[in-house]
Amino acid sequence: MKSLRLLVPLAIFGVIAVFLFVGLSRDPREIPSPLVGKPAPTFNLTQLHAPGEKLSTADMKGQVWLLNVWASWCVSCRVEHPLLVQLAQSKVVPLIGLNYKDRVPEGLAWLAQHGDPYKLSVVDADGRVGIDWGVYGVPETFVVDKSGVIRYKHIGPVTAEALQKTILPLVRELQKA
Amino acid sequence: MMRWLTANNVTRWLPWCLAFVLGAAVAASPADVAFDARLKKLDEELRCLVCQNQSLADSNAPLAQDLRREVRSLADAGKSDTEIKAFLVARYGDFVLYKPPVKSTTWLLWFGPFVLLAGGAVAWWMVSRRRGRATGSERAAVDGPAVNAGVERARELLNDPRE
User: Fold this and answer.
1) What does the pLDDT look like over B3-44, one tens digit per residue?
2) CB–CB contact A34 B52 (8 Å)
3) Cβ separation of A34 and B66 shorter than 8 Å?
4) Is the ipTM of this complex over 0.90?
5) The dihedral of CA B151, B157, B160, B161: what is its sign?
6) Which end of chain A is more exposed for a tag (fewer CB within 10 A), N or C?
7) DSSP A142
8) Are A32 and B92 a contacting pair at CB < 8 A?
């Protein structure tokens, strides 16, 4: 009984240590989006390559698609870019770019230099649509299903692991639905 | 280089400066001041998502500027503070609020400290009750001989004149 009581502080320490350890291993920058599982916020934006034409979220209904938020000023966008170019070549899923708070000539020059993986990009010059989508750090990638519901949000540069283990399996599953 | 700061120039420009400052003061009517104060308070209750330990009011991150502009335009459109917060929570989640809402997932956060405090109080009460139950004589029986021997030894060592 007495030795059992001595174990109580150790047990308390153990619980605190587990909490702290879990807290340390989580990335505080990754804030779960309340938009996952909800209809994607609508937009009707000018296309980057065709200033006279627009793309709205309604145009994408009926297919699974990815929205990738990018900008020419975004350094970590360069990290994920080769992966996106590869993804585009595989033609598994259409990739729409949201050119976030950027200038059109700079955005175009950036795509010319690094390759254009996007089916098309739309211009969100003032970041208004970005706010609707809960964008707080570029790059961000959303998976939208056939009925226009956001199914997944990836914050930060897409990694090969995230793409192979999470995003693509989800896309295939949603395409079957 | 400092020629433009001559007395002549100062007297020439001073009225203009005064007019400008007074004009700005007149333009800021009490209603505007109250509106700005309301926005400032609101911005202080909202978190900047980029620099997470700063409020929207404190942060100069581009996103914070955008969100401040958004808050202002919503307020201009006649939205209430609650509606503005709901707008941001719908997009960025509860994390955007500095003060988390009380709901089932945050019960531990809100009430955990009080549960711990109550637990401590119960433990303290139990221990003190057990101590109190041990009567004076019992305590003397346990402590008495050892304490007396110790005092004796101390007196010897100190060469207490009473010995």
Assistant:
1) 555 556 656 666 676 666 666 655 667 888 889 999 999 999
2) no
3) no
4) no
5) positive
6) N
7) E
8) no
